[in-house]
Amino acid sequence: MRLVLIAVVLGACVAPGEGLPQSTTHTLATLSPAASVASASLAATAWRRIADIPTARSEVAAAVFRNEVYVIGGFGGGRVVEIFDGQRWRRGPDLPVEVDHAMAASVPDTANAGAGVYVFGGNAGAPTARSFRLAPDATVWREIAAMPGPRSQAAAVARGTSIYIVGGYDGQRLVAPSYAYEVSVDRWRQVAPIPTPRDHLAAALVADRICAIGGRKLSLSTNLATLECYDPGADRWETLPDAPTARGGVGAAAVGDRLVFVGGERPEGTYKEVELYDGATRAWSRLPDLPTPRHGIGVVAVGRTVYVMSGGPTPGGSQTPVSEALDLPAQ
Question: Does domain 23-327 have CATH number 2.120.10.80?
Answer without folding.
Answer: yes
